[in-house]
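Purpose: get a first structural picture of the assembly so the mutagenesis plan has something to point at.
Setup: two entries, given in the order below. No constraints added.
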Amino acid sequence: GAVVSQHPSWVICKSGTSVKIECRSLDFQATTMFWYRQFPKQSLMLMATSNEGSKATYEQGVEKDKFLINHASLTLSTLTVTSAHPEDSSFYICSADRAIEQYFGPGTRLTVT
Amino acid sequence: GENVEQHPSTLSVQEGDSAVIKCTYSDSASNYFPWYKQELGKGPQLIIDIRSNVGEKKDQRIAVTLNKTAKHFSLHITETQPEDSAVYFCAASNNNDMRFGAGTRLTVKP
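Result (structure tokens, whole complex):
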């Protein structure tokens, strides 16, 4: 149990376009989901905490107007990277909270050209 | 806020040997300490966790110890195998506020 999926697994987009990444908890409901960003050979950097039915809480330095988060149901959260730039290229990973535990999705590799 | 330090950053062991990774944390209110294994190009996978009311937990070849007084916890992998090669992250959490260590790249040489 505790499976989290992400879609797409990888995406290439042009500068200035927007990209939506979906995170789903497949076999459990998650009131809270988290979005992380990971650069090569580095640790996980928390971007925002997504709560079902309410606004996301963003970490300091993360632009909420650039990284739009929607948590419309107990099994789905989406991250939209708006007006993407090459510096937004990264590995984006979501996790879903089940009680005290966090279960991670497989990640989405975004490349902005 | 919580600060988690992890050592070593890289660890190379011979197959069959043991591997130990250590973490320290700063927030005494942290009460949940998971360990994640991340393979290249994949998301982190929860491999073992320990709560603050327990000092040690074991699951087959992996074990975790927690010293709340000293604010440190460790991951122990015995009889290492090449498939154990990955990056391992420790984390400390207080009510869903989870912070991660910098990671340890473990290489198990056959």
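Chain B has a mean pLDDT of 95.
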